[in-house]
Amino acid sequence: MKRETKKILAEIILIVLVCSYNKMFIFALIWVFLHEITHILVALKFGCKFYNIEFHIFGMKAELIDIDSLKENQKIIVYLSGALLNIVLAIFFYIINIKYDSSFIETSMNLNIGLAVFNLLPAYPLDGSRILEVILSKKMLFKKAQKIISIVSFSIAALFIIISAIIYIFLHSLNLSMIIGAIIIIYITRMEEHTTMYITMSNVVKKRNKLLKNKYIENKSISVYYKQGLVNVLALVDRNKFNIFYILDDDMKLIYILNEDELIDALKVYGNMTLEEYIKRKLIIS
Fold it and tell me: Which of 85, 86, 155, 240 fits 115 for a cystine, CB–CB 3.0-4.6 Å?
């Protein structure tokens, strides 16, 4: 199963778990689908494209193209749109519930409030983690931003487990939904950590699409010590900019200029080696 598919399915499972306690489960699924469809419609409005949409027993899988070519505020709007729809629906059902006493209306109101709040939690794979990722990536490197989100995700998972334990100890009731939710958050967070390098490498293609769409892309230059490994340099790549690395020796002399496209090619061809070894190899070949 593809990494993105796992993340989407995990998000749907987490959302459904929030609703599973309720006997009107089928209506909960409707609000989940509307939540996901809202993401799609808003993304399409900003010019993104979907190349595969499937409906199956697990929910809905939608693979999105070009979301990384969007501006930061557009990404946030896309990620927020599902929760905003749930908030609007909750307000609508609240107003209707004032005049009409119906278990369906009251349940739908509560479900939409729960969906909105839960989805905005800053834990993988929920929308809140993507919003936080966009905000942090504007101020720091993607790898550092991801590390912070991972810590927050693990903390939320731990909180779920602690709350479940407290409920079991004092109320003698086992909340499987929270435990399963915690397990899924931990699993997806670990998967995000293990794929950091591949995410960074794939961002080169996404930045190319951004360049073609906007006709420009910002540059970022950074000076790096020549004893550093290529993977360590890759961790310094800013996912939203074209990166240029100035390689300095012990005397602070510039000995080489390395662009991110060459860095990716070097990792593909040679694997991880120090910048010093790579430069020597380049000199031998030339």
Answer: 86
**Residue 63 vs residues 1, 49, 53, 168, 202: alpha-carbon distances, Å:** 13, 9, 7, 39, 15
Locate 268 and state its tokens: 């593909």
Contacts of 125 (CB under 8 A, 6+ apart): 7, 8, 10, 11, 14, 185, 188
Contacts 24+ apart (CB under 8 A), 140-145: 141/235, 141/236, 141/237, 141/238, 142/196, 142/199, 142/200, 142/203, 142/237, 142/238, 142/239, 143/196, 143/200, 143/235
Hey, is 121 helix, strand or coil? coil
Q: Rounded to whole angstroms, what are the CA distances from 238 to 175, 206, 282?
A: 41, 12, 25
Provide the mean pLDDT of the chain: 81
Write the pLDDT tens digit of every residue in 71-130.
888 889 999 999 999 999 999 999 999 888 888 888 889 889 988 998 899 998 888 999
* Closest among 61, 50, 87 to 4, alpha carbons compared: 61
- CA angle (45, 146, 246) in 5-degree steps: 100
Q: What φ, ψ does residue 68 adopt, rounded to 5°?
A: -75, -10
